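Example record

One chain of 116 residues, shown exactly as stored in the release files.
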Amino acid sequence: MLFPLTILSPSPWGFYISVLEPVRPELTNMVVHGWAPAGSSGRIPLAEENKPVRLADLPGHPLESGNFQIEDMWIVEKIQRNLHSSRFAVGPLARGDGAEGPLMHFQRNVRDIVGY
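Predicted structure tokens for this chain:
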């Protein structure tokens, strides 16, 4: 991962660059640029290029998709939903040195750079 919002992903089938684009709180778009040889399993069919992926539009459960990015989307959406629960509380493992501090520092830096 490159700071602040770029992911480089080489694979046996091609090379991918993913750019995260914050839209608003709790909404981020991820644009994936991929290079793969014609006919390889890493190539996206032309009909699917530039088509947004929505979990509600998937034919099956996201965890059965075989796509780690779709699985991550599902996990993040579940976490966001749970943060709004009246039962949510910060747990003891999130407090103190070596816990969520580095993640909070990273997110503050991203927020400052993208202007939120």
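Notes: Residues 1-52 form one domain.
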